[in-house]
Amino acid sequence: MGFKGERKMKQFKYFSPRTTEEAWKLLTKYGNEAKVMAGGTDLLIKMKNREANPNYVIDIKQIANLNEIRYDGKKCCRIGALTKIRKIELSPIVSDSFRMLSEAASVLGSVQVRNKGTIGGNLCNASPSADLAPPLIALESRVKIVGKNGERFENLETFFTGPGSTVLKFDEIVSEIEIPSLLPKSNGTYLKFSPRRAMDLAVVGAAVVITLHPSNSICTNAKVALGAVAPTPIRIKKVEEILEGRKINQSLISEASNLAAEESRPISDIRGSSWYRKEIIKVLVSRAIAQTLEKIKLQEGGRNNETSG
């Protein structure tokens, strides 16, 4: 006996494939009537609220080897799509080599959500405010996609096509995320603003990655990505262009943060007006650049101490 007015989830048929091949074969068979479930933190809520009404649910969490973090310290780090957010947050590999991704994972929802949610689910849900998207875009990551036509790769920057939509075809799944190694004298920062910090969706999320010249501290490469300020997470290339080839000082940081706000396209909603979001962008981008420069300075200091010791 349910409560009066209680919504009941629509009945569906459940599958739990053990291989990626089995998964895409099920997707090929059932097409748009099926939904893929990884951690379930987004899909189950949508189904309960009748925002999603699949006839078939394909739960991929039993597929082997999609929950591993592998890094040889050279070319790239590979994170399986079923890797839990909490595992990424606590991973020494991620913390040591891609700290900004650890930072982003640590402010995504509650601990309970991070223990259930997966990196692949966070990205494939394609929310404009997804916490992992901006840092992964700034890190120039790409996703490995598998389906009946084999494997293909897509840069994360072009993976999102709109709120809740991606380049994935109906018979494809994401199997892993590849993050290229950072160059020497590089680092990054992810900052998020939300009313209750980690517990809420980002009103604005800002990610910055900077590489400095080894001898003169000129910025040789910059990546700036924002979340919750457009229909998809976006890179702000005009900001990157004004940072590259120059020594970053406070005046340049102010110029960059103002330009980031100008280039964004936030909407007004219950969590904040467009004007409010633009003001937050200025603050977060400014802080992210400053904190990234400080991280580079500290990591260089640590290396010098190791050398002298």
Name of the top-level CATH class of the largest domain: Alpha Beta
Mean pLDDT: 90
User: What's the structural domain tally?
Assistant: 3
How helix-rich are the residues, as a percent range? 25-40%
Measure the end-to-end span: 71 Å
Shape: globular
How would you write the strand order of the largest sheet? Answer: 4-5-10-6-7
- Give the class from helix and strand content and strand pairing: alpha+beta
Poorly predicted ranges: 1-5
Specify Rg, calculated over alpha carbons.
20 Å
Strand content: 15-25%
User: In this structure, how is the largest beta sheet organized?
Assistant: 5 strands, antiparallel
What's the total count of β strands?
A: 14
3D architecture notes:
The structure is a single chain. The protein has helices at residues 20-30, 43-48, 85-90, 92-97, 99-106, 111-116, 119-124, 133-138, 156-159, 237-243, 250-263, 274-308; strands at 13-15, 34-37, 56-59, 69-71, 76-80, 142-147, 150-155, 160-162, 165-166, 173-180, 186-193, 204-212, 219-227, 234-235. It has 309 residues and is α+β, with helices and mostly antiparallel strands. The chain has three domains: 13-59, Uridine Diphospho-n-acetylenolpyruvylglucosamine Reductase, domain 2 (2-Layer Sandwich); 69-180, Uridine Diphospho-n-acetylenolpyruvylglucosamine Reductase, domain 3, CATH 3.30.465.10; 186-297, Enolase-like, domain 1, CATH 3.30.390. A five-stranded antiparallel β-sheet has the order 4-5-10-6-7. Strands 11-12-13-14 form a four-stranded antiparallel β-sheet. Strands 1-3-2 form a three-stranded parallel β-sheet, covered by helices on one side. A hairpin with a 6-residue loop joins strand 13 (219-227) and strand 14 (234-235). Helix 11 packs across helix 12 (274-308). It is globular, with a radius of gyration of 20 Å. The N and C termini lie far apart (71 Å).
